[in-house]
Structure formats: structure tokens, C-alpha cells
Amino acid sequence: MPELPEVESLTHFLRERAVGRTILAVDVIGFQALKTFDPPATALGGLSITGVARHGKFLDLDCDGLHLIIHLARAGWLRWRDDLSGAKPVRPGKGPLAVRVRLAPDDEGAAPGFELTEAGTQKRLAVYVTRDPGEVPGIAALGPDPLDPSFTVAALKRIVGGNRMQIKGLLRDQKVIAGIGNAYSDEVLHAARMSPFKIAATLTDTQIADLHEAIVTTLGEAVERAHGLAAKDLKAEKKSGLRVHNRAGQPCDVCGDTIREVSFADSALQYCPTCQTGGKPLADRRLSRLLK
């Protein structure tokens, strides 16, 4: 799933390649992806892309005052094409292609653009056309951005104070903190040397400060690594920079202990027992149910 660092990099990528260009057409192939109908997607044709911003995990393309908002969800991605002039029409429901944004040809006749694709059968990629990004429910409900200067230790203390959620779930809750998903919550908690099952309200002031440092540093370093990369290279960069997520069974780079996993119905978390849980393995709840 693309998270804050990847979406931030895509934002910079599109600023460099798409801002100032005119939209020729927006072709919606996966109709389930389009979540709004007024204004219609056809209204974007002929408008210029004047800016690109990020709201949590949402991409926001400002098109002369109308906004094309994109949420890539778990299995979505953005593929830039230097020339879409020869792209063949795609039948709805066939393949992973959901949306194609075609830009007007340049002086050399190439018509660049990008495609939104989604793998798998669970279609969660979402596209909105709106006059105000705040009209998108997911954006309106976002918590503070962890890369914003206003996200201080004091702000984090207010968030965790009295909250009985496990810290792993709290970090992933977009209404609490915007932009962190399954992968970077694992990475943040490893950097903070904190159990994913720790209750947020039990954190001491020192632990809150350590968690804040881990959030800002982990995300900041990931953004820096991804800066300037082409969209097609971001997935590989994310994978190469992870220290615990999706590395179950491998040695921890910090202490050498074996990274372990806890599985859930539709996801899993990874952690290092020595770094995070005092050497004690956490119960794998899915496995425990199977053994009953």
C-alpha cells in the first residue's frame, strides 16, 4: 500500500511532469473507482494542471480550480507514460487499468499522461472530482500530518493521552495521524523500540518523545530516499528501506534476533522481540485460533 513517503514522492514527480500541461481527457475504465459524479470526470478535459498536493495518502491535482483527488488504497498504483498517443482503448472490467489521464501533446507530438492501476479483486482505489478537497470524506476526517511543523511532541501527547487503543492501531488510524499505514507503523515502532500491542494511554513522557522522534525520522528518511525517483521505482525503494515489515524470519539489522510476525484476518505485522517486547514473542492470534 502506498503510504505517506510514496505519495509525497508521487506528488513531487507529478509537479515536475504534469503541472502546466493541459488535460486532453480522463478515461474512466474501472467505473467503481469513480466516487463522485458532479462535476463529471469529463469536466477536466481542456483544463490545465496548476498544482499538485498531498493530503495524508491522497493525491490532489488542482486543475484550474477543479480537483482530481486520488487514493491508491492497498493495491493501486500510478504509472507515468511519456506518450499515450498510441494507447489502445480498454474495455471496462478487463485488466488492472482503472483510469487513464491523457495530456495534450507537446511540441514534439508526444502525448504524455498517467494511468491508475489496481491489482487483485478487492477494488478500493478511489478517484474524486470535486471543487473542494475538503468535500472528500477521507480528507475532511484526516488527523494531523506528521511531517507538518505543528506535529510536535506536545501534539502527540494530546493524541495518545487517555487513548486505550493499541499503539499499532492508533498509528494506522487516519483520523488520528494522517499518512501512516501498515508498513511504516511497523518501522516506526521498531525504531521506537515499542511493542505494537502497547496501550497508547500508558506511554510515559519519555516514550512519547521517543515515538515522536521515530515517526518524524522514519518518515522523513523514507521521503528523502524516494525523492527524485521515477514512479516506477518507488515500490522497490520502499521495500529495500524496510527493516522489519515483510521481513519475518530474517535477522534484525539492529540486534540480530529473528523478526517475527503476528497475522490477522487480512493483514499482518512484523516486529523484533529483542528490540520491542523484551525478548518475548507476541501470540499469533490467527495461529492460536487454528490450534484450538
Q: What Rg, in angstroms, do the CA atoms define?
A: 21 Å
Characterize the main sheet: 4 strands, antiparallel
- Give the strand order of the largest sheet, numbering strands 1, 2, ... along the chain: 1-6-7-5
| CATH T-level topology of the largest domain | Helicase, Ruva Protein, domain 3
**Class from helix and strand fractions:** alpha+beta
Q: CA-to-CA gap between the ends?
A: 32 Å
What is the number of beta strands? 10
The topology string of helices and strands comes to HEEEEEEEEHHHHHHEEHH
In CATH, the architecture of the largest domain is: Orthogonal Bundle
Low-confidence stretches: 287-292
Task: State the helical fraction.
Answer: 25-40%
How much of the sequence lies in strands comes to: 15-25%
Total separate domains: 2
Round the mean pLDDT to the nearest integer and report it. Answer: 93
Explained architecture:
With 292 residues, the protein is of the alpha+beta class. It folds into two domains: 4-140, N-terminal domain of MutM-like DNA repair proteins (Alpha-Beta Barrel), CATH 3.20.190; 153-291, Orthogonal Bundle (Helicase, Ruva Protein, domain 3). Helix content is 28%, strand content 20%. The protein is built from nine helices and ten strands. It has helices spanning 4-17, 137-140, 153-160, 167-172, 182-191, 205-226, 234-241, 273-276, 285-291, and strands spanning 23-28, 49-55, 58-63, 66-71, 76-81, 97-103, 113-118, 126-130, 260-263, 268-271. The strands form three sheets. It has a four-stranded antiparallel sheet, with no helix packed on it. A four-stranded antiparallel sheet has the order 2-3-4-8, covered by helices on one side. The chain is elongated. The two termini are 32 Å apart. The relative contact order is 0.14. Residues 287-292 have low confidence and may be disordered.
